[in-house]
Each structure stands twice: as structure tokens, then as C-alpha cells.
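User: ok so my PI wants both of these folded by tonight, can you help

Assistant: No problem, let's get them done. Here's the first:
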Amino acid sequence: MRIRLALLLSLMFLGSGVARTAELALTGAKIYTSPTDPPIENGSMVMREGVIISLGPGSTIKIPKSAMVIDCKGLVVAAGFWNSHVHILTPALLHINDSDEKKLDQELDTMFNRWGFTTVFDIASVLDNTLALRRRIESGELRGPRILTVGEPIWTIPPVYVRDFLRENHIHIENTETPEQAIAMVRDHVAKGANGIKLFTGSDQGRGQVALLPLAAAKAAVDEAHRHGMPVFAHPTNVEGARIAIDSGVSVLAHTIPESPPWTPDFTEQLKRADLSLTPTLTLFDFEARKAHLPDPQRTGFVAQMVDQLRAYSAAGGDILFGTDIGYIDHYDTTMEFTLMSQAGMNYRQILASLTTNPARKFGDSGHSGRIAKGMKADLVILGADPAQDVRAYSKVRFTIRGGQVVYQQR
């Protein structure tokens, strides 16, 4: 990559922390300022102290002599990506206070920075541990990304597929049955610093059995969370779990629904009226099918069912948030997710919205992130190809910039 090498050598990764520079400039890029605005061709921008201070066609932007410059000729720039469904549960991230910087940075790069994620929403983990990780990132000790978290989820009983993991790692999460228990858990999470709440409105017990969270408990949790301005995510599992999410006022469906008939216009309209956003996590279902050793025709049919659900909701104008469930699955490469979203009929602008403006709006951060504009936070991703030509370009990340600092560079 064409960078002023003297500045790069002096300013790139200091120890294992963030690349520190007061001013950073990008030149010669195709810049997608938002999913709806026309791109700036041969554009430039300047960032200072973590904020975009100028932006426009290259001929109109004066580049400070003191700035570190990345020559982006032939490259594409977009706002930093959000991943709205991750888990801080990998072995390398489970014991933050006992982990060294180098190993943590390597794991965060592998999971997040490498794929352009400048903000992630962790929607089930050990809250105290995740908050400790967030503090180390916010201090500048680690490169990132910015982490929002729900901590421990609310369920009547753990889903069958996490029980061994919980036992092996000595993680205990209380079961919840009553509104009083649900309210108490929300208040505990608020006091500790969580950013949202996760409900298992349907918890898979295996062999076709699903434990449903009582509607009264779900509604109590949602009302208390909303009283504190926090979004609520729901893992539905089946249609009954989705209806509890709708009726309780949940903010986000964390998945499409494995145990569901095709989504009808009436059903998608119910989701829209409830103002439910959807993180499809389509790659998850390929992962689960392979883990279960399903024959290829059965696996592809299962994934196609999930793609059809996304197609139905997106075509109906439903709000889509990008999410992959990484941390539960170890398939970090985002290429498949973008490919499947495209198969569901989403174009490159709709996919970009799911990565940027949609989550920024949903989670109350649209005044700071999700778009590229003067005065906005300098969270950016530099791509090696144009997603307008092939949506898989969203996975071809050359640089990730968070708060005006280079936190990932393709080697």
C-alpha cells in the first residue's frame, strides 16, 4: 500500500496498541459516504483527533503536511462496519484479566478488525469479563473494536447446545421464570454497564422441544430495559418464540427462525409493525448443518430456507442488521454471509446499510457513526474492491480505521 513510509514506520502499531497519529489523510479513493448518496470519485478526507474534518473531491481537499497519508487509488472507502451479533466467548477472550496484550490483539484482529468491524454488539457473554475487555480497549491498550454488550442472557433454561460449554468453563447463569426475576436481572446489568438485554424467548432443548420464556417475564424485562434506553434482542428458535418477541416489544430478532414455515406477507407485516430489526446470521445455519453432518442437499435446503426468510423481510422493507454469531461459530470470514445476503435479493447498498446506517440508527449512534461526513467519528474501512461490482468486496478489507487510528492493515 502506498503510504508515507517515514510516518508509517514511526506511527504504526506501537507495541500492540493502536496506531497513534494526530492527523490521518486518505487520498484518491472512491468514497461511499452513505448507502444512499452517490459516491465521491477520486475523493480525499482528513481526520484529526478521531474526527473527520474535511471530505470531498481530491482537488478540493488540502492535505496537511503533518498528516500520515494513505494513497487509496483504486480502493474504496466506507464507514466502519458494525457486527450486531457476536459473542465474547472464545477461549482466548474468556479470561481477560489473565491475558496478555499480544494474544488479545491477535484474537481481536482475527475475529473483528480484520473484517472491518469498528463496532460490535456482543449479545451473550460473561458480563464482567466483557466489560474488562472493553476497558482495555478504551484505554488504548488494545486495538479494538468498540464493544457494546448485553452480558448474560435471560432464559428459562439454557439451550442444549451451550450446556457443556457452560459447565466446562464454570459459567453459571440464573434461570428466569417470573417478571420479578427478569426485572432484577435487567437492573443488575444496567448497574454494571451493559448496553442491552438478550432474551431467549425460545430456548432449544433438543428433539424438537423448545422452552419458551413466559410472556409476562419477557414483557417485564423489555419494559425495564426500555426504561433505561436499552435495546432488547431475542433468540426466537420457533414461531412461538418469535410471537413472544413481538408481543413483548423486543427490538431485534437475533436470527431468522429455523423452526418456521415460509414467512408470509402477514407475518412480515407483524414484524414490521413491531419495529423489529433482524440479524439474519445466515452463515450460522450452514455451520450448524455441517456440524450435524447433514447431507449436502439437506444442508443447502436448510440454508435456503433461512435465505428465503431474509428475502421476505427485506423485500417487505424490514430493517436488516448485519450479524454473524462469531464467537459462537468460528467461521470468521464474512464472504459467505455477504454472498447469502445477495442471494436473498439484497443489493450492495442495502447490505452497506445493514453494516452502517441501520445499526447506528437502531442503537442511537447515528449522530456519530454509520456515515462519512465532516464532524463524524473517523471510523472507516478501506476495501480492495468495489462492492457495487461484487458484494464479496465487503470482505476484502485492506485497512480498518477506528477513531482516526489504523487498527488493522492487510499485510
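One down. Here's the second:
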Amino acid sequence: MSWNLPFLKPAPHIARLPEAQVKQLYPKMRWKIMESTFIGYAIFYLVRNNLPVVSKEMAQSLNYSKGQVGDLLAITAISYGVGKFIMGAWSDRSNPRYFMPLGLLLTALCNFAFASVHSYPMHLALWGLNGLVQSMGWAPCGRSLGHWYSIGERGTKFAFWNVAQNVGGGLTGLIVAYSTVMLGWRSAFYVPGILAIICAIYLLIRLRDTPQSVGLPPIEEYRNDYPSGDNTDSEKELDTRDLLVNYIFKNKYIWLFAFANFFVYIARYGMLDWGPTYLKEVKHASLGQGGVSTAALEFSAIFSTILMGWLSDKMKGRRGMIGMLCMIPVFLAYVGLLYSPDNMLWMDLVLFGVIGFFVYPTILLLVVSALDFTSKKAVGTAAGFIGLFGYLGRVVEGKGIGSLVDRYGWNAALYAIMVSCLLGIVLLSMTWKLSPRTAERIE
């Protein structure tokens, strides 16, 4: 793309290293890419999921209604969803080493500004802008992992990396809650912002672009793992039109995964965005206990995400089937929240853990499924398109839950989330037999 900033352009290929150096360097570089993208993406969550944890305290301080808080959540979901698609296409044509740290720096600045102003229109604009630059996080990670890990190991490796969002999200609940207790609600944005700047510097030091940019062969050659027996996987960067039209818009599988993601995201964010407030208002939880609920959602998914990703590889890429089975206990957990006694907070926290345990693997498997059915040169764009639909679902959730609670109470909101779970199950059932080894691939 001619409009790409020079320092963001993909790193050029260099002369290949001797075979002895390739064998020595490749494992080290693969670990370096996994570790740095893991840490970087976890930190992105600190400066994105901090608002829901302190939304009640902020609203009380500034006299904001639940509807206004819902608008803040909705505006960032809109901008993040749209940005994830746009930035995904941009990232596929960029160097992650610079693209990802730039996103962290910009989101830190948005957080600093958000904590410093008192105007609701300014808060709305800044949190919308924060959602846009937040979308610079997943795409460069997807590009990096797509180039350094092959299709035969993708479910397991992406699952391990995906735990970053649970680590980041869980730490957010704890760091933000206790920062607020000690320093006030504005520290919920200052502290994560400082951590984001430190991490941006770290990524500049650690990240690299493709294997060929450091003198190594393509991952398919190194792993001898070519999709559908094809050992001529193109390393040519795609132009924008080819990327969008042939690899995304004409890809029927991408559309199916995207629509399923819409409803799964409502199930994911229903309690992630509103869970702390729900527990405080309905179950009489404290601020600290509300933060623990976020940690329960996030940390419970660490083992399950890795397990389901590994299982999807063992099932020859039948990721949709596993995702559908995971959504059934998510639905049942929401039923449990609806009928759990008010004086048994521990039970609610367990149910939050059940939701996290099963909903996060589903989201991971939807994204990896999309990557299975497109080119590794379109990883960011495919994930961005899937994510766009997911965050459109979050828009509906963010605005819809707040409005439903204001008008009809929390039970109505839980019923709406349960319906979304069922629709997600129906759509995922259509992916039951899909596998990258048996279905038509888009090459």
C-alpha cells in the first residue's frame, strides 16, 4: 500500500543463513515471537478492560447513568470492531515489530487523557479512539504467529498464545480494583497506561517480522508441514484488493465463522463488561469481589483454551465442532446465574469461571478456523473480519444490557444473553464437519 508509513512496511527478506545456524536460531526465534506477542497482547488488555471494573465508581463520581456507561462500552466496541478489520488489513502489510508497539503507545496516551478529563463527550470520544488504536494489538500477533507456526500446530500454539488475554484480563480485574481502592478511580487508567509504555519499549527490542527477514526459511519448509500437500506456499505479499475480495469477501467459511462470532461475543462480554456491576447491585458484592469476578472469568480459561486448541489439532482441525460443544455449558452457566441464591456469592463466582472456561476456547477456535481457510498472508484481515462481527455483537451487548437493566431489570438482560448463546450454538452446528484437511481451501 503506497500510503503505508515507511517504518511500518514489512521487513525485507535477507540472505539465508547456513543450515547449521538455521537449526540453532529457528527454535530460539519461535520462542521469542511467542513470548513477546504473549506479553504485549496481555498488556493491551490492561488498557482496554479497565473501564468495566471501575464503571460503577466512575459513574457515581461523575453522575453518569448506566445508559451512558453502556454508550462508552458500545463506542469502544464499534471502533474496536471496525478498527480490527481495517488495522488487520494494514497489519498484513506491515512489520509487527513497529506496528504493535505503536498501538500500545497510542492506547496509553488515550488512557492518560481519559483519566484527566471530566466531560462526558470527551470521555466518549477518547474511549472510542482508544478502541480504534486497541485494534492494533491482535493483528500483528496473528501475522507473527501465522509466519512462525505452521498449520499442523496452529490450534495448540494459538491456544497457548491466546491465554495472554486471560492473563491480561485477569490481572486487569485485580490491578484496577486495588489501584482504585488505594488511589481513586482515575488510577485505573494511569497505572495501566504506564505499564503499556514500558511494554512498547520491550516489544521494540524483542519482536521481529517474518522468518525470511532474519535469514531463515519459511515455516512450512522448516516444519515440513504444507497445507493439503502443497509445498509451494507463496511468500508474496498480497495487494489490498486481492486480500479483501478473494481471500475474505468471497470466502463462504469466513462469513459463517463471522456470524457465529457475533453471538459468542455477546456471551463472552455479557458478564465481562457487566459482571462486576451485576454482582455489586444484585449480589451485594464489594469492589474487590467484583474485581475477583473478572479474574475468575479470565483465569478459568487458561487451561481450557490450551486443552481445546490441542484437541482441535488432534481432531484434524474440526474446531467448529469443539466450539459448539463448549457453548452448551456456557448457556447452562447463565441459567445458573439467573437462579442462584443472593447469599451465595461463591456460587456466582464458580459460574463466572464456567463461562470463562468454555467461552474463550470457542472464540479462539472460531478465529483459528478462519485462518485455516485462508492464506497466512491474510491472517490479520481474516481475524479482523471475524473480530468485526464479534465486536458488533459487543456493541449490541454493551448498549443493550445497560438499557435492558434500566428498563426491565437484570433478569431480562440474562435472558437476552441466553438467547444469544442458543443462536451461537445453532450457527456453530453448521461448522460441525469443517476441517482444513477435508474442506475446500481458499488459496
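Residues 228-233, 438-443 have pLDDT under 50 and may be disordered. The chain has one domain: 18-219+240-429. Good luck tonight!
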